[in-house]
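User:
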Amino acid sequence: MKNISILLLMIFSTEIMADWIMYYEAPRIGFENWYESNFQVRGDNVWVKERSRYLKKPPSPNARSVMIEWQINCSEYSFQGRAYSTYKDLNWTNQTDTFNPAEGRKPIPRGSIVERLANIVCKR
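Assistant: Predicted structure:
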């Protein structure tokens, strides 16, 4: 019975099954980015969570780490932030703010971190 409970917990818990994969690092400025491996693909759209942390100089004392949920349209090559959360610590545990951006979809800028992520999740 105990083995079945553990198996069911693993199957139905996305946080247990999700791996965070580092895809960008800038040690000189102390910036790191990860994306969640179990991102969702629906047609041309990909919903993916990204984690960032600022090891050296954060944008504010209440934003040492950030989690963003992106919607990326692979055919239009556009993106939109769906949910933002900031954290006081480096490990995404002490949440300081959360909000849903009002901005609409925008073209993905060349050479940006979002472009790196889009190239991965859109398999370009």
